[in-house]
Design a protein that fits this description.
single chain; 4-stranded antiparallel beta sheet; 3-stranded antiparallel beta sheet; 10 helices; 13 strands; globular; disordered N terminus
Length: about 290
């Protein structure tokens, strides 16, 4: 029988030997999540700079339970939580996520849930005082009025990662033409999920990430230049979507066309009033303005 701790699925903790904030997650041993996480974070895989998989810090075996283990990972922040302030900040995030998707697909791994809640950032440089696991807009979980953070632009490069391989598939290297069926993941708008026909799981990954790109772009003024790649990746016809490698090349061509002033250009969330924009613009690089939480 699972304890209350095990039923929590994921909790935060402090690693004793270095005081690092971590997340402990309950994982079922009969799924592919643990072996895929171990494979992706093995030394040979981690040597590739395109690997954007969250590090697996430890695996904790449970006494008298062969069906569950705890895995330990760094505590990360959802990538869109802190507001994007510059074009280059969003471009950096998308670039890393496309690299990570290309890397996984090269190793015949389909994430199957490359959606918003599984796209994370290392906020250690942007929020040097740290953030609370549940009440992220506070440092301690209590005082949101004194929350401080740096613009990503000032602490770039910021690192971005995929988490949660609970729905993922790893196929033998060299095997092609794999198909899956049924719906899964956070994004119910994937066109393939509306049919019982088998589908290409890698094209589902492309759609899911493309839809995240579009959703963020639509929340900001100044990110329209990323609409094309988002629309290409979310084509209703799977065959018309690019592979991860082609999407990455398309994105890198776009980046190469941008000059430093283009990347530094200020952007705003569409729901931030003009007066607040003026006020934020004239603050120091550390913002003390409470953020709108979704």
């Amino acid at each position: 029988m699972l304890t209350t701790l095990q039923k929590a699925i994921a909790i935060d903790a402090i690693r004793i030997n270095d005081n690092r904030k971590v997340v402990i997650k309950l994982v079922r041993t009969w799924t592919e999540e643990l072996p895929i996480a171990q494979y992706l974070t093995s030394p040979p895989m981690m040597s590739d700079t395109r690997n954007r998989s969250v590090a697996l810090l430890d695996v904790i075996m449970l006494p008298d339970d062969d069906e569950h283990v705890f895995i330990v990972m760094p505590m990360l922040l959802r990538f869109d939580i802190l507001p994007f302030r510059r074009v280059g900040e969003f471009a950096e995030a998308v670039h890393y996520f496309l690299q990570g998707l290309e890397f996984m697909h090269e190793h015949n791994i389909a994430h199957m849930d490359a959606c918003l809640f599984n796209l994370m950032m290392d906020a250690s440089k942007a929020i040097p005082k740290g953030f609370h696991f549940r009440n992220w807009w506070t440092h301690t979980g209590l005082d949101y009025k004194n929350f401080e953070f740096h613009e990503r632009w000032e602490v770039s490069p910021v690192q971005y990662y995929y988490i949660d391989f609970g729905l993922s598939y790893q196929y033998p290297l060299g095997l092609k033409g794999m198909t899956e069926s049924g719906s899964c993941g956070q994004d119910a708008s994937v066109p393939e999920f509306g049919s019982d026909d088998p589908y290409d799981p890698f094209k589902v990954d492309i759609y899911q990430l493309g839809n995240v790109i579009l959703n963020v772009v639509n929340k900001y003024e100044g990110l329209d230049l990323f609409l094309e790649i988002g629309r290409t990746m979310t084509s209703k016809i799977p065959e018309e979507r690019p592979t991860a490698s082609r999407a990455l090349r398309q994105f890198e061509r776009l980046l190469s066309s941008l000059k430093p002033p283009d990347l530094k250009r200020r952007i705003w969330r569409v729901d931030v009033p003009l007066w607040d924009r003026f006020r934020i613009k004239h603050l120091r690089s550390i913002s003390r303005i409470p953020l709108m939480v979704e």
